[in-house]
Amino acid sequence: MEQSSGAIVRSYAKINLFLDVIKKRSDGYHEILSLFQNISLYDRLIITKIDRGLEIKSNVDIENNILYKTWDIFCSKFKEPEFGLRITLEKNIPMQAGLGGGSSNAAALLFYLSDQMGIHKKQILNIASEIGSDVPFFLFGGTAIVKGKGEIIEPLDPLTGYKVNIITSNGISTKKAYQSLNPTLFGKAPCSPYILYEAYKNRNITEIKRCTYNIFEKIVTKANKEISQNLKKLKKTSLISALTGSGSAVYGISFKEGEFKFIPRGIEYEKVKL
């Protein structure tokens, strides 16, 4: 992208087609094994340059907006830009839903800053996980196996041809959800995310149903009847229904009907001029 006074950036949501926790790490984080997929639900960041600092306006009140943390870490690791930014954030991705909205927003800002300042993607990836565990994925986007605490990304050929419906309920704290995990639940998935990925590629519905897995469903559905009901509702009209992340959003996947679809990217400049 050419140097300009601003840009409009789309930051897309994700769903977890598969999510298992392998162990709790010595650094306090959890070791995950997951299959991430971007979908066409997105937030928009309308970015214009100002003299200094960072100003954020949003259609949703967000306490401790991750964009401030992203700006601060970027400036401390590289250098503060010779310009400031005013960001108008149009939130469409529900918060505390397991759809990665905050991480996606952070990646969008990193993407823009790296583009404007000529910083290589590898350098940006090195700081992305300091901002949030899911942020590195969105810099790759599309379809990927995600490991470690979220910083190990194995990009895969994008999955296409699937539609997605989503139902959300009251937000769930990711931190509290992980704290509630019992180690006896770790590593109990019925198959690997690689097998599930191949099932999606081959349109193997039997294997998709067998391998779809989210460790948090064992906890969340017991504590939240609304989420359990939403899963059952989507199951009636979908190939499968599942929780994404630690919730509260649930999704249903089908071949033909759905408000959203699988897409091959996490971040995208809109083709408009400000």
UniProtKB/TrEMBL annotation:
Superkingdom as given in the UniProt entry: Bacteria
First-tier enzyme category under EC: transferase
Transmembrane segment boundaries: none
Chain sites annotated for binding ATP: 94-104
Tagged with keyword ATP-binding: yes
UniProt-listed Pfam families: GHMP_kinases_N
InterPro entries: GHMP_kinase_C_sf, GHMP_kinase_N_dom, IspE, Ribosomal_Su5_D2-typ_SF, Ribsml_uS5_D2-typ_fold_subgr
EC code(s) of this entry: 2.7.1.148
Keywords: ATP-binding, Isoprene biosynthesis, Kinase, Nucleotide-binding, Transferase
Active site: 14, 134
Record-annotated GHMP kinase N-terminal domain positions: 65-142
Pathway in which the depicted protein is active: Isoprenoid biosynthesis; isopentenyl diphosphate biosynthesis via DXP pathway; isopentenyl diphosphate from 1-deoxy-D-xylulose 5-phosphate: step 3/6
SUPFAM superfamilies: GHMP Kinase, C-terminal domain, Ribosomal protein S5 domain 2-like
Family: Belongs to the GHMP kinase family. IspE subfamily.
Protein name stated in the entry: 4-diphosphocytidyl-2-C-methyl-D-erythritol kinase
Organism: Thermosipho affectus
